[in-house]
Amino acid sequence: MQPVLNQLYFSDRYNELLDSAGSSRPHWQAMIEQLQHEEPAVMRKRIEAVQRQIRDNGVTYNVYADTHGVQRPWDLDVLPLIIPQEEWQHIAASVAQRATLLNQILLDIYGPQQLLSSGQLPPGLIYGHNGFLTPCVGMSHDDDVALHSYAVDIARAPNGQWWVVSDRTQAPTGAGYALENRTIISSAFPELFRDLNIERLSGFFASMRDSLAHWGHRVAARQAAAVPGITPLGAGEPPLVVILTPGPYNETYHEQSFLAGYLGYPLVQGSDLTVRNGVVWLKTIAGLQPVHAIVRRIDDDYCDPLELNAESLLGVAGLTEVARCGHVLIANALGANLLQSGALLGFLPGLCQSLLGEDLRMPSVATWWCGEPTALAYVIANLDFLVIKPAYPQVQSSPIFGEDLNATQKETLIAKLRAQPDHYIAQERVDISHAPVLVSHHQPQLSSLAVSVRVYAFATPNGYAVMPGGLARVASGKDDRVVTMQRGGTSKDTWVLSSHSQAPFSLLRKTTSSKDLVRENTYLSSRMAENLFWYGRYCVRHLQKAIMLRATIRTLLDYSAEARAGEWPTMQGLCQWFALLPTGDDEEDEDVLWQPWSDDEIEPLLIKAVFAQQSSSLATSVQQLFQQAFNLRERISNDHWRTVNQLSRQFITRHPHPSLQDAMSQIELAINHFVTLTGFAMDWMTRDLGWRFMSLGRRIERLQFMCMLLSRALEMPQHSNLEWLLQVTNNLVTYRARYASQPEWLPVLDLLLTDAHNPNSIVFQIKGLVKYLQEMDAQDSAGGIATELNDCWQSLMALDPDQTFAPGNMTLAAWLDQTYTVTLHLSDRLSLRFFSYTSMHASSGY
To answer: What is the pLDDT of residues 479-488, one digit of tens each?
Structure first.
């Protein structure tokens, strides 16, 4: 191992692993010893286990314009970044000081503005920034905290000194990824993690939750005093804290949903919230619920289309006014984006002395704001040694390294700087430290790449709590001078050593008495209920689609054209209904089967129905299901989510020239996964209101399919083979056990229509739907939604099987058509009633 370690040393950079003599640093010694004594195969399995856990857990990071889209796996190196305790104490104290300083600056800029009037901050630097939000001037904040969540990117210079590269103050991201990294890497090195007494992260998140609850109670008291009808929170009653997300296409949506599940907060979009009577309300199935605190992941100006950005479709109209009234806590306060400007970095040492009376503990990378004439002159004279960056977010420009420019390019850049000097900053180029990474090949190899660390702090009533560790990020290659995940970088877990053992800690709140017991999710949002409803429908729809494809292909392979003549047009027609096969030339009548295909014609169409990237194929359907599950990430278990991921990845793999047998193999795997998802839904999920909506979706979808299936089947000749009908409804085994004979119309239709003990029968679906709908009607005193379906049930049971359970029977066909129509109306009524909130009163139902 030692010759390999020597290859990792670079004299022009600080090496996190090796000292100047090429020996491993003391705090890395235990890790190095483990690596030295492990066989390459063991380490390779460790790497594969980490990658498999990321894939199975669906940990993703969406790089814009990446072909992987929302399924791009999170990149995590198996080796952690290790930092000794005494060094971390300096980092933590520096980060807490910096957060305190920036909070004071933010309060002043939107308050008395003494820093501007005294000249300590140039007015042009503040007012030229489009992140300065005039509507937010004069807002007050509990305990004078406007910057609740703070993150800072730090890197180590060649002399070993940690420097601040940038501040993240708007809506800092990555804390959830740091937590996921810890979960995965600590399980990869369980003994080492335990023996080194690595600092735990859960205490930081507990401080975060306790602080939000503390301020949330204050907000709740103000709401109750100002708005009639709002009941004050009890002493032990938690306030309603939500995480406001831009939506599933945001690059860190997975992290947001993970944090929401971990902290127990609803993950909401702007459409889930509304402002009424000066309060923000969450639209839930139980009615409007007052929101006390919002942890936002939306940019400042997008939070309120009424006062901040009229083009925003992500925010909540009127949110700014509610914040002004003190009726909601927003973390971070609107306008915090202003502090992310690199132009502030050069002013912080003086401001630290002025506001805190002490020196800045951790310096920033040397920064010049070109809006100052002396700074501009220095930048132009030393361009070869500097990096030019935009000062404001409205300036669209990537970092420009002066050393990369030829003479003409330098002249062009200098002209830009002189034309709009206040739009640019310049920073000293620093060769940041390298950390070891384990490259996964046939033979795992150690390499060395540039590394930076994002450290997190959160405000508490007693100062800032700092996460003991953070999100370490590694450059994507040896020549990369910018460390960022958006450019394909890799992450690392950050281990902070401790001198004492770490006790396990749970973030879950303790239940101290029976009054703390909870039996229902009070804060089920309308959008979440709708997502659960459609997730249930998609699970059943795509399973039925796969089963129908399997039955059709099996019939094609197992029977001659003559033997399948009776049922073959019906099977093709059902495939058309699923849009798996094309319909005739008349696009307005999709039910018309213009002609049966020959075997040579239909085979490639069936293969295409499985693999093709078209709107109705099985492959596309699986991706739709994945997306729907992605919207529910915080509501489903890890095992459930892992199965969805495995199903999705199965259809991402390309098959250049698939055969009918390949199609069958793919279908069988998909059906197995769908059946597993059914088990999770029916056996592993609590029977709460969310589960009921998902079950409503499942039963409506199955009922529609059964009505269409039997309606088409009744058109078949009397002596058709009914075995495929029992196969696609999963009733063949039951039928054979009962009758031990070839399927006949009367017993088949009895089994599929009126057998209340058969979970695949029509009456079973109707009974369940009526039961759930009546429970909901009783819950919100608005009955009637189940009446039509109940009438269908009664009319079915009134039919005489001997007279109507036969092919070509018009009475039964009419009943099936009517019931199908009722399910369409039912779906629409559920949407209007539960998924679009219109009531003006918080306590009223839908």
So the answer is: 555 555 455 5
